[in-house]
Amino acid sequence: MNPASLLRRLALAVQFLTIARVRISDPVTTDELRDSTYFFPVVGLGLGLVLAATGSLLGWVFTWPVVAALLVVELAVLTGALHLDGLADMCDGFYAGRDRDDVLRIMKDPHIGTMGVVGLACVLGLKAVALMNVPPSRGLWVAAAAPVVGRSAVLLACAMGRYAREEGTGKTYIGQLGRDHAWMALGMAVFGCTMIREFVPAAFAFVLAGIWMVIFVNYCNRRIGGLTGDTVGALNETTELLVWLAASCR
Question: Which of 14, 50, 58, 193 is most buried, by CB atoms within 10 Å?
C-alpha cells in the first residue's frame, strides 16, 4: 500500500472518530473503510496529545482538578460525543429492552431515555473524579493514555466480535477484521498503558481493560447476539474510564 493510500485511510479514521472534517476526493470503498480501522488507536493517540497540550496550557491558570474536569469535556467535544451517544443508547436498550429485538429497536431510537442519562452522568462523573485523583506529575500522560487504549479496545472487539444486526454502519467493521488488526490493537494498547509512566498502574490498566473487553463482548453476545456501533462506542467510553481509574489507584 502506497503512502497516499495510507494517508487516505488515516483521513477516513480521523473524519469518522473526531469532529475534524478532512477533504477526501473520489468515492470511498468498503475496503478503505475497513482498512481505516488500523488507524483508530492512532487517532486515539492524536486525541491524547491534544489533551496533553491543552492541559499543559490550562495548568498555567487552573489547579489540576479543574484541568482534569475540563479535559473530560474537551475529549467529548473533540469526538463529537460519538461514543457517548453509543453509551447512552446502549444503557437505554440493554436496561429497558425485554428481549433482543426490543433492545435493538430501542438503541436505534434517536431519543435518550432515563437509563441513558444515568449512564452518561455516571461515566462522565467518574471519569472526571478519577482523572482529578491522578498525581499531577503524571496527569497529562494519563489523560493522553486513555483515548489510545479505548480505541485499541474497540479495534480488538471489532476483530473478535460479530455484528448483531442484519444491516447497519457497524457491519463494515464488526466481524470483518483479521488477526493483523488484533495485533495492531494489542500493540497500541500496550503503548497506551506505558504512557501512564508507572509500572503497577500501567499493568493494572492493561489487565483491567483486557478483562473488561472480553466480559463486555461476551455479555453483548449473550444479550443481543453480537456487537453494534452503539455497543463499541460504550466499550470505548468505559475502557477510558477504567484506564483513568487504574491510574488513580494508590
Answer: 193
